[in-house]
């Protein structure tokens, strides 16, 4: 008595010859019947395995989280694993179909085994992509380089798939191939140098919390200035202010300097540090007529009163104020009372070193508005007010002679 496959073939062949077919025709008909039966069995197995797996998944999802089921179905996770069952049927069917031809059996078994390997690879890959999608919807992982780790897992998945395929075709064991791969480690390090560097950089970026998805960064070397939209194994994608996309290497933030605006966005305000240049010759002691005029302003009178009575001779006096002193005090008061300035943070008006362009007067404070357009509008409003208020204090903005001549 032969093997089970031989018994099936003998039974079909015997029934055909009993029906009156000639041996040659019976042998051909036997192969046709087995082929058609094998195709039907593969189709039915595929349909049954899919329905069975999906039914189990829905039962599990109803008890757990249906969102996860939808994500895995969208990534065709269960379809890939369902392909393994009909492949096993095909593997058995080839041994029946070619029971008398051992070479053909080995050939088709290699094909089926490789198909099973790829089905499992796609199954693992879809699980990785599904897991990536699930983590991407979790707020705790919004700022993590999930793409880098998913790419690394895919590389490992493909690496072992390649080893299994080579092992199947060559007949060598996995351990022998892994040993050979170890001997080629120097070559592998050279080939995957950028990938390994990117992986190390991704780990450093994540562990040191240097860059998150959604951060606004500036990397002058690569012309990147915008929002980080993706961090993967080898690149960081930045959407610039003009909606262009700049791609920089993942290791760039490790090796080159860059600016991250996250600290400002998480703080209580965005800094204003800007100056205007005053004409030095317009700075004078306040005369009594000017003092009387300004005392009529209820917003400025308390500032003048703070310095006390003004002496008639400003020289050798420590209480005589200038128009610039009064203007500085006024600006500090104006800024601290401004509704869009955070008065709880540093707020001052200071002089910088004089230059050939006049005396710089710097405004240093923090706005409540951190969004770029609103922030710029606040700056514009403040400096428009400053420029308009200067003549009231008999101060002038410095303009170079060439600029004045051109304007005239």
The radius of gyration computed from the alpha-carbon positions, rounded to a whole number of angstroms, is: 40 Å
Q: Can you summarize the main beta sheet?
A: 5 strands, antiparallel
Enumerate the strands of the largest sheet in spatial order, edge to edge or round the barrel. 4-3-2-1-5
Query: Regarding quaternary structure, how should these chains be classified?
Result: single chain
Q: Tally the beta strands.
A: 8
**Helical residues, percent:** 55-70%
Structural class: alpha+beta
N-to-C SSE string, H for helix and E for strand: HHHHHHHHHHEEEEHEHEHHHEEHH
Low-confidence regions: 404-408
Strand % is 5-15%
Overall residue-averaged pLDDT value: 76
- CA distance, first residue to last residue: 115 Å
Number of helices: 17
Q: What's the shape? A: rod-shaped
Can you characterise this structure?
There is one protein chain. It is built from 17 helices and eight strands. It is 59% helix and 12% strand. The chain has a five-stranded antiparallel β-sheet with strand order 4-3-2-1-5. A three-stranded antiparallel β-sheet has the order 6-8-7. Helix 1 (4-18) crosses helix 2, helix 2 runs antiparallel to helix 3 (66-74) and helix 5 (84-97) packs antiparallel against helix 6 (102-136). With 408 residues, it is of the alpha+beta class.
Structure, briefly:
The chain has 408 residues and is an alpha+beta fold. It contains 17 helices and eight strands. A five-stranded antiparallel β-sheet has the order 4-3-2-1-5. A three-stranded antiparallel β-sheet has the order 6-8-7.
Produce the secondary structure layout.
Layout lengths: L3 H15 L4 H41 L2 H9 L2 H6 L1 H14 L4 H35 L9 H25 L3 H10 L1 H7 L1 H15 L8 E4 L4 E8 L3 E6 L4 E5 L2 H4 L3 E2 L1 H5 L3 E9 L9 H8 L5 H6 L16 H15 L10 E4 L7 E9 L4 H18 L11 H7 L1
Helix pairs in contact: 1-2, 2-3, 2-5, 3-6, 5-6, 6-7
